[in-house]
Write a structure and sequence with these properties.
The chain is built from ten helices and no strands. It has 197 residues and is mostly helical. It folds into two domains: 44 residues, Homeodomain-like (Arc Repressor Mutant, subunit A, Orthogonal Bundle); 148 residues, Tetracycline Repressor, domain 2, CATH 1.10.357.
Length: 197
């Protein structure tokens, strides 16, 4: 990534975090980055390209974080806690602090200016989470820690339970500490259901 591209990206991320995706124009981004609007178009074909880049960075961050958890030395239950509980706690903070994250994770298809049928960012992150959780469940079953017949299906159901309960609009309405307590309680319940007896 060129220095100019990084400046534009940084300006875009800062502005949309504060004001949201719909309220930030290319002129705003140019002013914040200290470049011309034309310079932005040399790096990015349109605003949608900037959004796609931000989405990709988020997915890449989640994938890298989960890969590190799965490859770590912790017991399987601790790995699942990292994937589910710690992710939900971080999610709770992000949607409170970053307006763009809130909008994209609430459903990017509602954004007025996007010309394509946008992919659901939340769905893509869900898939990454389920894939990581399935790996940990398989590991836990092999170690005799978990008793699950179908790790992939169980992982999808576990991630779905957390994801449905912790949608961006619902999380933003409740205090962060309450959200974290609830996901801890949900995690404890899920662990009781899958632990080997």
């Amino acid at each position: 990534m060129s220095a100019r591209c990084e400046e534009i990206t940084h300006a875009f991320e800062g502005l949309v975090a504060q004001f949201g995706l719909d309220r930030v124009s290319m002129k705003d981004i140019a002013r914040e980055a200290g470049v011309s609007v034309g310079a932005i178009y040399l790096e990015f074909s349109n605003k949608e390209a900037l959004i796609l880049m931000v989405e990709e960075k988020w997915r890449s961050h989640v994938a890298q974080r989960n890969a590190a958890i799965v490859a770590g030395d912790q017991p399987p239950e601790d790995k699942l806690r990292g994937i589910l509980v710690e992710h939900a706690a971080a999610f709770s903070q992000i949607v409170r602090q970053d307006r763009a994250a809130f909008e994209l994770l609430s459903g990017a298809q509602r954004l007025r200016y996007l010309g394509r049928a946008t992919a659901d960012t939340r769905k893509k992150i869900f898939e990454l989470m389920a894939e990581s959780a399935a790996g940990v469940l398989r590991e836990g079953c092999e170690a005799g820690v978990f008793a699950v017949d179908d790790p992939e299906r169980t992982a999808r159901l576990m991630v779905q339970a957390v994801a449905e309960h912790f949608s961006a609009p619902e999380v933003a309405k409740r205090p962060h500490d309450e959200v974290v307590r609830e996901v801890e309680d949900m995690f404890a319940l899920l662990m009781k259901a899958i632990r080997a007896r």
